[in-house]
Design goal:
CATH class of the largest domain: Mainly Beta
Helix content: 10-25%
CATH architecture of the largest domain: Beta Barrel
CATH superfamily of the largest domain: Pilot protein MxiM
Mean pLDDT: 81
Order of helices and strands: HEEEEEEEEEEEEEEHEEE
Distance between the termini: 80 Å
Low-confidence stretches: 37-42, 178-183
Number of domains: 2
CATH topology of the largest domain: Lipocalin
Shape: elongated
Length: 219
């Protein structure tokens, strides 16, 4: 009888382990809410992606009931996790197996509103930008136009700006004119590095280290 019970327990544990699968996911460094996504369900939710390599522009919004058991979330870091799940369980119920990578996001250091200032021997076109941390976007205002540019990796110096606008708006008064002048939004396509100077300036550089544009905080 004891042998039979042992075999039953053994096979139960064996098949329970067999049912569990593992996968790699990334967790977005900020929890979002309906103020940022007005058409989403109410509450606070997180974003994830089922990928081996981090894709900064591809995220899936999870439901409010989404859970990764034993995972302690710390804001400001991209997490690469190995998680365990069971096919018979809802997909929002995961269990942490191991943390494969914890990557710091430096976007918070440049978050906020900025305006450019003239540079010697460079054409000047007034530009305002607004960096938003939770949505990883850089809004650009100049003349009649407003562009929303996505942000990829933001390290201690490295910065990735998407080389296209998600949206481009023009005031009807400006139609037929050419509000994007020489020295305008070209920095979006060329910027690969940034630097915060001791005097509070935010500088953008190209891949060869040339200063493209300089911003100061909007008071």
């Amino acid at each position: 009888m004891k042998s039979a019970r042992y075999l039953i327990i053994h096979f139960t544990l064996f098949f329970s382990c067999e049912e569990k699968e593992t996968k790699t996911i990334w967790v977005y460094p900020y929890r979002l809410n309906t103020e940022l996504y007005p058409y989403a369900q109410t509450g606070i939710f997180i974003l994830t992606q089922d990928k081996e390599e981090l894709d900064y522009s591809s995220w899936q919004r999870q439901s409010e009931s989404f859970e990764i058991k034993d995972f302690k979330f710390e804001e400001g870091y991209f997490y690469k996790l190995k998680v365990e799940y069971e096919e018979v369980q809802p997909p929002q119920k995961l269990k942490l197996k191991s943390i494969l990578e914890k990557r710091k996001d430096f976007i918070g250091t440049i978050e906020g509103a900025w305006k450019n200032i003239p540079l010697p021997d460079q054409p000047f076109f007034p530009i305002f930008i607004h960096v938003q941390k939770p949505t990883r976007t850089l809004e650009t205002y100049g003349g009649c136009f407003k562009g929303i540019t996505g942000l990829g990796e933001v390290g201690e110096r490295k910065i990735q700006l998407v080389d296209k606008y998600y949206r481009l708006d023009a005031d009807k008064v400006c139609l037929g004119q050419s509000p994007i002048q020489k020295g305008g939004f070209s920095f979006v396509q060329s910027t690969t590095q940034y630097q915060l100077s001791p005097n509070g300036f935010l500088d953008f550089f190209d891949s060869t280290g040339n200063l493209l544009i300089r911003f100061q905080p909007v008071e």
